[in-house]
């Protein structure tokens, strides 16, 4: 099945001994000129790349306090060394957060610090060389920017910030990553990561409308580019066709229908994800974000709501106001933007959704906290709402719910292994190995509580798990969308009750 | 004045200047560099008061480190807390009239030296014994521990083994503060102790000791979680909107 060894579940999750160089060979495809240039980067490695790289590093040091402080402050205490899922899954020491940071820090020290300029050996400083650039390309594409290390660092050093800077430097010298840069180009050209044009979206949404009507007997609308709608829904483009994503989209539509609120998708902003963040490019991230502002203005909506997507929610919650604000043209009674889970949660609290939990009795659920939702954003009014709100929704929709081990959920959650621009087939080995800690935690609740399915609210998590779970003895349909559960449980006003219903509730 | 006294007077003036200017310049750089995006590690406080509290827990109790690794936390916290007591105890060498609280902590400050040394030895043991920590250690990481341990041990020599002429030491430092240099006693433990302290002051602004000011400037810890309520815009990012 794979041309690499799939890690075995560890009996007791002890910290593995390090083995140098085990993932040195892992490198994603380099972006060709066609994918580099639309983003404003050189098409291939420039001749004076060392100079350009050091200049770029200097520029970033002056633009990002995080980058400057994080490079200085590390004391090499070792607290982060066992916190990265990629280290746990690969045992390569350059996948320890500090090991990864040091690849860049040693060059920073050499060119920007007194100690590194005059005593390089003493402080582990190193000249920028082709080997170093190779290492950067390899290992800064083995970080999913999940921020787990930053939770445990006594100074809050976030390796994601270092990875983003490294990728921006590599883009600046002409060594960008194909997967991310090609996708950002598609967003600029077509409007979404998958390159789905307006007619294809329209077609898909019509199909969904028919399916839902066949299923429920109720005409639920899935509108596109409808001017004057109250809500603009921005959702990851995977929601339009991939499983289990599309079941989530069906759920959003049903929830809007029951709320009686008009809504629309936009073909101009048909993508929630913002890969500009993955490559650390403020400018590209801003350009992608502006499409949402443009769509909101063009359609004359009053609110913006985001669908289930992890890194997207980080950019939306934490950055959108900065990148594409101010949103003073929207209804000030609602936060901008809102998460679909916040929206659904409010409706549940108000008792506006008729949820029959027994309709999900064929499943026993656990919930995977997506990394960037957990550690880089919030839902609701109070810190930690990003943990409680999705769980409240699941509990309102299902009878059987069990959390995984405490050290693998909430802000200690493990990344799915495919975030941060790594969800590409050329990094399959990394993705499988990086999923190990989450798969172990899942195995435990499967064995102890008979859990059958894991719910998530991130397009990357869903795609990643659907792909890697079979490597670990699960099936690809064991990952579900949270709004899929809502969709299953929700009895629409006027919906014909089917006979199975009564049988299922008897089992309670 | 003896050659040694002149040399140490010069050394300490130089070290003090390097320390103050170096750390000051670094802090200025941290303060001046913008944080263009809201990146607090969440869940994060939604108010400034909450952020102050979070920072307090980090700086005083090493909260994140406690969650992370109990051994590093234990040795690290013992070392830092002991160092604090030791430093506070040393205030007495810079004042004519010793503040009451400085007198009161004197016995604790004396024995805190043991805590310092135990903490440092624990951290060093980890650096040597744990393969992951050994891998990330540069020579400077070992030397920094050696330096601090040297300061602690030479200080303890004077406190517990062979006392130095502490009255003259105090006169020396009061003299420095008043810009009227005085003689310094010349027993080896004192000279070693003071030399290492001067060295520490000099390397502070060019080493990982910058974690001390750095922690206060860490955007993942010092930002308020309110991006939806309040628009956050760095000056260079605002330029892009023109």
From TrEMBL, chain A:
One Pfam family cited in the UniProt record for this chain: Fer4_8
Domain of life: Bacteria
UniProt xrefs under InterPro entries: 4Fe4S_Fe-S-bd (IPR017896), 4Fe4S_Fe_S_CS (IPR017900), Helical_ferredxn (IPR009051)
Keywords, in A-Z order: 4Fe-4S, Electron transport, Iron, Iron-sulfur, Metal-binding, Transport
GO molecular function: 4 iron, 4 sulfur cluster binding; metal ion binding
Chain ranges of the 4Fe-4S ferredoxin-type domain: 65-94
Keyword Transport on entry: yes
PANTHER family, A to Z: FUMARATE REDUCTASE IRON-SULFUR SUBUNIT, HETERODISULFIDE REDUCTASE
NCBIfam families, alphabetized: DsrK
Protein name: (Fe-S)-binding protein
Taxonomic classification: Bacteria, Pseudomonadati, Pseudomonadota, Gammaproteobacteria, Thiohalobacterales
From TrEMBL, chain B:
Domain NarG-like: 69-212
Keywords: Cell membrane, Membrane, Oxidoreductase, Transmembrane, Transmembrane helix
GO molecular function: oxidoreductase activity
Subcellular location: Cell membrane
Domain of life: Bacteria
Pfam family, one: Nitrate_red_gam
A GO cellular-component term linked to this record: plasma membrane
Membrane-topology descriptor: Multi-pass membrane protein
Gene3D superfamilies given in the database record: Transmembrane di-heme cytochromes, Chain C
Transmembrane stretches, start-end: 6-28, 71-91, 111-130, 142-161, 190-211
Signal sequence coordinates: none
Protein name, UniProt field: Nitrate reductase
Species of origin: Thiohalobacter thiocyanaticus
UniProt lineage: Bacteria, Pseudomonadati, Pseudomonadota, Gammaproteobacteria, Thiohalobacterales
């Amino acid at each position: 099945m794979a041309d690499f060894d799939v890690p075995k579940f560890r009996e007791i999750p002890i910290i593995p001994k390090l083995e140098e160089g085990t993932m040195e060979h892992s490198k994603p495809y380099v972006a060709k000129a066609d994918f580099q240039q639309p983003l404003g980067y050189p098409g291939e490695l420039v001749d004076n790349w060392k100079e350009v790289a050091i200049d770029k590093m200097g520029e970033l040091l002056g633009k990002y306090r995080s980058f400057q402080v994080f490079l200085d402050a590390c004391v090499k205490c070792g607290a982060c060394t066992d916190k990265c899922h990629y280290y746990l899954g690969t045992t390569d020491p350059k996948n320890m957060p500090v090991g990864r940071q040091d690849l860049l820090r040693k060059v920073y020290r050499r060119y920007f610090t007194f100690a590194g300029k005059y005593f390089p050996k003493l402080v582990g400083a190193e000249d920028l060389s082709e080997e170093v650039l190779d290492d950067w390309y390899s290992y800064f594409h083995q970080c999913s920017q999940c921020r787990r290390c930053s939770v445990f660092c006594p100074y809050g050093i976030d390796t994601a910030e270092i990875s983003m800077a490294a990728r921006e430097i590599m883009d600046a010298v002409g060594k960008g990553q194909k997967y991310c840069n090609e996708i950002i180009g598609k967003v600029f050209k077509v409007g979404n990561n998958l390159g789905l044009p307006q007619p294809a979206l329209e077609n898909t949404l019509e199909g969904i409308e028919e399916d839902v009507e066949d299923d429920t007997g109720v005409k639920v609308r899935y509108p596109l580019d409808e001017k004057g709608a109250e809500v603009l829904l921005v959702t990851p483009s995977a929601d339009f066709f991939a499983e289990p994503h599309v079941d989530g989209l069906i759920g959003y539509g049903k929830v809007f229908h029951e709320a009686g609120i008009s809504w629309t998708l936009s073909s101009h902003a048909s993508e929630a994800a913002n890969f500009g963040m993955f490559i650390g490019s403020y400018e590209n991230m801003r350009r992608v974000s502006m499409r949402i502002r443009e769509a909101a203005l063009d359609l004359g909506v009053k609110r913006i709501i985001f669908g289930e997507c992890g890194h997207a929610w980080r950019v939306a919650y934490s950055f959108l106001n900065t990148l594409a604000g101010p949103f003073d043209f929207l209804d000030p009674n609602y936060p901008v933007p809102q998460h679909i889970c916040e929206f659904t949660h409010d409706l549940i609290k108000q008792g506006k959704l008729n949820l029959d939990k027994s309709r999900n009795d064929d499943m026993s659920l656990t919930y995977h906290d997506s990394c960037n939702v957990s550690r880089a954003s919030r839902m609701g009014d109070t810190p930690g709402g990003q943990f409680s709100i999705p769980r409240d929704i699941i509990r309102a929709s299902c009878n059987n719910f069990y959390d995984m081990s405490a050290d693998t959920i909430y802000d200690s959650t493990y990344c799915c292994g495919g975030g941060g621009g790594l969800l590409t087939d050329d990094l399959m080995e990394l993705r499988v190995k990086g999923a190990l800690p989450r798969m172990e935690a899942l195995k435990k609740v499967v064995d102890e509580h008979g859990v059958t399915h894991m719910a998530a609210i991130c397009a990357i998590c869903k795609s990643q798990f659907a792909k890697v779970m079979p490597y670990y003895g699960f099936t690809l349909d064991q990952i579900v969308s949270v709004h899929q559960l809502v969709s299953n449980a929700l009895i629409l006003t006027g919906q014909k009750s089917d006979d199975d219903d009564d049988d299922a509730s008897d089992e309670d | 004045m003896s050659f040694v006294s002149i040399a140490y007077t010069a050394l300490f003036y130089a070290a003090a200047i390097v320390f103050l200017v170096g750390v000051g310049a670094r802090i200025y750089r941290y303060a001046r560099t913008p944080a263009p995006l809201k990146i607090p590690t969440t869940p994060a406080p939604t108010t400034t008061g909450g952020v102050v509290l979070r920072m307090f827990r980090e700086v005083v109790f090493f909260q994140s480190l406690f969650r992370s690794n109990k051994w590093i936390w234990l040795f690290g916290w013992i070392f830092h807390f002991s160092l604090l007591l030791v430093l506070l105890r040393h205030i007495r060498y810079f004042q004519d009239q010793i503040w009451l609280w400085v007198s009161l902590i004197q016995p604790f400050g004396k024995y805190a030296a043991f805590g310092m040394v135990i903490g440092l030895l624990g951290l060093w043991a980890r650096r040597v014994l744990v393969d992951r920590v050994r891998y990330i250690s540069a020579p400077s990481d070992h030397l920094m521990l050696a330096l601090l341990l040297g300061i602690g041990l030479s200080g303890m020599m004077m406190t517990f083994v062979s006392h130095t002429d502490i009255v003259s030491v105090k006169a020396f430092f009061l003299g420095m503060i008043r810009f009227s240099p005085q003689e310094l006693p010349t027993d080896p433990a004192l000279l070693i102790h003071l030399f290492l302290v001067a060295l520490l002051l000099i390397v502070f602004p060019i080493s990982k000791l910058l974690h001390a000011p750095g922690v206060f400037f860490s955007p993942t810890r010092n930002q308020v979680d309110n991006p939806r309520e309040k628009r956050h815009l760095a000056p260079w990012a605002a330029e892009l909107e023109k």
